[in-house]
Amino acid sequence: MSRVFSGIQPTGEPHIGNYFGAMRNYVALGEQYGKGSIYCVVDLHALTNPAAFDPRLLAKRTFEMALANFAVGLDPSRVVFFAQSHVPEHQELSWIFTNLTPVGELERMTQYKDKAGALESVPAGLLMYPVLMAADILLYKADTVPVGEDQTQHIELTREIARRFNHTFGETFPEPKAVYNKDALRIPGVDGHGKMSKSKGENSTLGLLESLDSIWQKLRAAPTDPARVRRTDPGNPDVCLIFDYHKLFSDLPTIEMVDVECRRAGIGCVDCKKKLMEGVTATLSPIQQRAAELAQHPDDIRDALAQGAKEARAIAAPVIAEVREKVGFLKL
Ligand code: AQP
C-alpha cells in the first residue's frame, strides 16, 4: 500500500502558493490514506536559510503552521502530523544519506543556487537541505510526495539516494514519486517577481490567514498585463497574474467571462480584481474562521503534535533499525 509524506517549512506565514500547491493535496490524500499519510512541519529545514530563520519566531511559526494545516481540513486524529525536530530519526538517516551524496550533485540544485546566491556566507545546512528532505521521505518508506513543482529536482535526488542506498546496502527503500496539483504548479508572487515565496517576504505573498482587507490592498496594487496601459486597451489574460489567481479562486463562468471581456477591453483591471476578491473571500473566510476557533484551544494543537510525533516514531523505528543493521553499526 502507498504511503504519503510531505513537509512544510515554518519560515513564515503559509500562503496561497503553499495552500493550492501542496496543503490542499495533503487533505485529499489524508482522506484517502488515513494514518498512511504523514505530514510534518519541517523546522530543521527552517534553520538552513539565515534570511528566513529567526530563533525568536521558530516555535510560534511551527505552532501556527500546524494550526493552518488543521484549519484547511487536515484532521490530526486521522493522519500523522508532527514537527520534524520531535523525531530525531530524521537527522540520523540524513547523516547516513549525506555520505552517499556527492557534493557536486547538491551544488547543482536550482533552489540551492538561488538561495545561496543571495547570501554572503552560505551555511553547509543549505547545501544539505535536499539530503535531509530525502531522509524525511524515506524514513517512512513513503512512495508518494505531494509538493509544488519547485520540489521536482529534490524528489529526483531523493530517488537517486534511494537507488544508491539500495545498490550499496541491499533493497530497502522505494523510489518515491511527486504528486502535483496540476492547476497550481507554481503560483506567482503578488509582486509579479517569480514564485510566491515565504522567504521573499510579505510583498510576495497572499497569506492564507491574512486579513481580507490586507489581501485586497495587495491585489489592488498588483501588476497586470503591462501592455494594457489604458482601460480601453484590450488585455492578454495569459500574461496577467490576476488571471492566474482567478483560475485558483473563481468559478468556471467567472473565469470564462474575465478571459473574454479582458481580451475585448470589456472589463477593467480594477473590476476584474474586485471579481477575484469575491472568490478569495469565499475560499479564505471559512479557513480563517476555523483558524480563529482552533486558536482558542492551543493545548489541543500541542497535544496533537505530541501524539503525531509518537505515531511517526513508531513508524520510523523499524526502518531505522533495518538501516542500522544494513549499514553495519554495532548492535548491543
Ligand atoms: N508558489 C508556489 N506555488 C506552488 N506550490 C508552492 N509551494 C511553495 N510555494 C509554492 C509548495 O508548498 C510546499 C511547502 O513549501 P515549503 O514551505 O516547504 O518551502 P518552499 O517551497 O520553499 O516554500 P516557500 O514559501 O517558497 O518557502 P521559503 O521561502 O521559506 O523557501 C512545497 O510542497 C512547495 O512546493
Note down, in words, how this protein is organized.
With 332 residues, the chain is mostly helical. It has two domains: 4-187 and 298-327, Rossmann fold (3-Layer(aba) Sandwich), CATH 3.40.50.620; 211-291, Tyrosyl-Transfer RNA Synthetase (Orthogonal Bundle), CATH 1.10.240.10. The chain has helices at residues 16-33, 43-46, 58-71, 89-98, 103-107, 110-117, 124-138, 152-169, 212-221, 241-249, 252-263, 269-295, 298-327, and strands spanning 4-8, 37-41, 80-83, 144-146, 177-179. The longest helix has 30 residues, at 298-327. The structure holds adenosine-5'-tetraphosphate. The site of adenosine-5'-tetraphosphate (AQP) has 20 residues, from helix 1. Adenosine-5'-tetraphosphate (AQP) binds next to helix 1.
Question: What's this model, at a glance?
Answer:
With 332 residues, this protein is mostly helical. The chain is built from 13 helices and five strands. The protein has two domains: 4-187 and 298-327, Rossmann fold (3-Layer(aba) Sandwich), CATH 3.40.50.620; 211-291, Tyrosyl-Transfer RNA Synthetase (Orthogonal Bundle).
The domain tally reads 2
Question: Can you give the mean pLDDT?
Answer: 96
Structural class: mainly alpha
Output the strand order for the largest sheet. Answer: 1-2-3
Biggest sheet overview: 3 strands, parallel
Distance between the termini: 33 Å
CATH topology (fold) name of the largest domain: Rossmann fold
What's the number of extended β-strand segments?
Answer: 5
The helical percent reads 40-55%
Count of helical segments? 13
Q: Identify the CATH architecture of the largest domain.
A: 3-Layer(aba) Sandwich
Sequence of secondary-structure elements: EHEHHEHHHHEHEHHHHH
- Shape call: globular
Low-pLDDT residue spans: none
CATH class division of the largest domain: Alpha Beta
Q: What would you report as the Rg, rounded to the nearest angstrom?
A: 21 Å
Bound molecules: adenosine-5'-tetraphosphate
CATH H level of the largest domain: which superfamily?
HUPs
User: How much strand?
Assistant: 5-15%
